[in-house]
Every structure is written in structure tokens, then in C-alpha cells.
């Protein structure tokens, strides 16, 4: 993927399918285990501005059952996490759309005395399961680290700045990339297991259909022949 420059707007689109009747107990029975299924980073470590592994920008994790996770931001600089739920997704194609507007890429805006704004980078996300229309992701609930509000301020206990949300909770403002190297997407299962009681199962399968980029949302919606049908926190009650 090419270098991203200030004010570049890009939509990244990935489709994947998790087949039915697979055994994911190695995740659901062991809180120490996780499975990264979409991974966006800068290309070469260490890069010139941040230490090794601190250029991480986007993770989608699968946590078994209907449960997924989103990790967004630049590690140890400004980030947050969210759990979300996609009922009845197994055996269906799930389409993820990520919008980035690259701003202030060298993080020169970061300080302990100011809030992050849309001038520091923009991130938005849409999800569609099967033939259903897309819903835009809301980020107000179920965010991590715990007890850290998504308010754009520096948190001295965590040692990071937390991105700020738009008034409707669907747009994230904050630094969104280290622009010293090209980006890459990892479309694979990155299974992570600590020293917990359940062994990692390497027999699980995930299918990836396509990866596309666009410079506007209409092109993406036309490609899938779908529309946007509101916004959701993608919590259990929202999707039942």
C-alpha cells in the first residue's frame, strides 16, 4: 500500500467469513487467548519515530461466538479498544469498511495540555453481515482500557492520550498513523496464547474474499449493492 499523506481520505474494505460448527473453546474458555483476524500496521519495524511494535494502528480480533474486538490507535501514544457483537455471522460474509482521513501524521500535536480534534486524524467504521445493509459503528460504550473516557484527553495513569469522539459517537478523532513507512494489512489468523489453561487450536478456518480501496463511501456501497441503515454500538441488545 502506498504512503498516506496529510488530508488523504481512504476507505479500506475487507470481507471475511467464519464457517459454522468450529470449536473456538481455546478462546472462549481462556481469557488470555485471542485471535487477530485483521491487522493494519506500518511496514517495517522499528520505524523512525516510534519504538518497535508501537506503530500498530488497527486490529480486529475474533473472541469466539458472536464476540469481536476492535483495537484502534497508535500504541503507547493514543488508542482505545471496543468489544462488539455480530449475532448469526457464522457461515456468512462479513464486510468491514474503515475510513481514514490522515492528518497531523507525525503526532506533533500531542501534549498533556490539549484535546485531540478532527485536525489530528479521522477514523470511521461500517459493518454488514450477510445480505444485510451496513450499519455505522458507534464507539461510546464498552471501551477499554477500563475507566478511561473517550474524550480526547491525556490520561496520566495510562500514559496515553485517548481519541475524541464526534457528538453522535460514530467518528473517532486522534492520530491515526505513523507515516514513516508504507502500510500493510495482515489478512490471516494471528493466534495469541499466553500461559493459560487452554491450548491454541490451529485447525480453525477463516475465509477472506477480497480487499478493496476507494476514495468515497458511495463507491463501496455500489460495489456491494447495499446502503447504510443507521448506526449501532453492535452490542448484544442492538443486534438481537
Main attributes of the structure:
mainly beta, 7-stranded antiparallel sheet, globular
Describe the structure.
It is a single chain. The chain has 240 residues and is mainly β. The chain has one domain (9-239): Jelly Rolls (Sandwich), CATH 2.60.120. The chain is built from three helices and 17 strands. The protein has helices at residues 25-28, 217-224, 236-239, and strands at 9-17, 34-42, 58-62, 67-74, 78-85, 93-101, 122-129, 134-137, 143-144, 154-155, 160-161, 164-165, 172-173, 183-186, 190-192, 207-214, 228-232. The strands form three sheets. Strands 1, 6, 7, 8, 12, 13, 16 and 17 form an eight-stranded mixed β-sheet that branches. The longest helix has 8 residues, at 217-224. The N and C termini lie far apart (37 Å).
